[in-house]
């Protein structure tokens, strides 16, 4: 029997306890595109009714969404993003950026972001809040923070989703490919390790506490997706290191935004478990998502999405005010 498994606590892990599975990510994607009603989520996500009800309740319990009555006879409800839920916006932008650059291209929804501040179609860019340079995983170092500790991993709390979705009418989402990675906590723990230069099977297992069979499966999946690549460092027997590909390194800003969200909402009273520093300016990293055209930080109220679905020639514009209007606050 394997020893009891532990991993270093970090706000990434705590955040993934709330948003770290595929159905939840699909719900949040729909919410950012102004869908608020149960039947709308049912159609847009393809999630089975019972699972959708469960995940909406979880998001409400976590105060990421609120359930608001919009009809009294019969009594019906909408699910609206709270301030805490809207705070996941940065991670959603980075997921969209990754998907547009690296996701499967056949039959995809076409999305353009218009930054109302400068009026230009833009690409969200992860930037250092101090030196304003684009953030790259290789230019970030970390050290233990005041809330650093070890936690026991419970393997039974979260399983991969199986048979949890039906075919969507649209058959596509904005986060087709990346949701499978971000929505799997074991894959995220593997990537967390590799981002900190922990690259061999045994090193990753020791760092993450993942069971050997689960780890082997996740490494195989991430390699087949082109996110990791195997490089032999020993022969007879052959042993490998797992290195990030270019698309793998581009996942780092997503992890960074989820970590930041977790620090804000789930850090211990002592403080964040990890402190990050940008090597380019040697200052503590305070990441910002900025417009690549004018350099200004992207805030929800200043961004519209122009979405064209496969088979349609006209785009639909999702106005920022529809999702982020003040009256939707808790």
Spatial extent as radius of gyration: 20 Å
Q: Overall 3D geometry?
A: globular
Helical coverage, percent range: 25-40%
Low-confidence stretches: 156-163, 166-171, 321-330
Number of strands: 15
SS class: alpha+beta
Ends apart, CA distance between termini:
48 Å
Q: How many domains make up the 3D coordinates?
A: 1
Main-sheet strand order equals 5-4-14-15
β content, as a range?
15-25%
The major β-sheet equals: 4 strands, antiparallel
Could you give the order of the helices and strands? Answer: EHHHHEEHHEEEEEHHHHEEHHEEEEEH
Fold blueprint:
Blueprint: E1 6-8, H1 11-19, H2 22-32, H3 38-45, H4 49-61, E2 65-72, E3 75-81, H5 83-86, H6 89-102, E4 110-115, E5 120-122, E6 124-128, E7 140-144, E8 150-152, H7 178-182, H8 185-195, H9 201-208, H10 212-224, E9 228-234, E10 239-244, H11 246-249, H12 252-266, E11 274-278, E12 283-284, E13 287-291, E14 303-308, E15 316-318, H13 320-324
Antiparallel strand pairs: 1-8, 2-3, 4-5, 4-14, 6-13, 7-11, 9-10, 11-12, 14-15
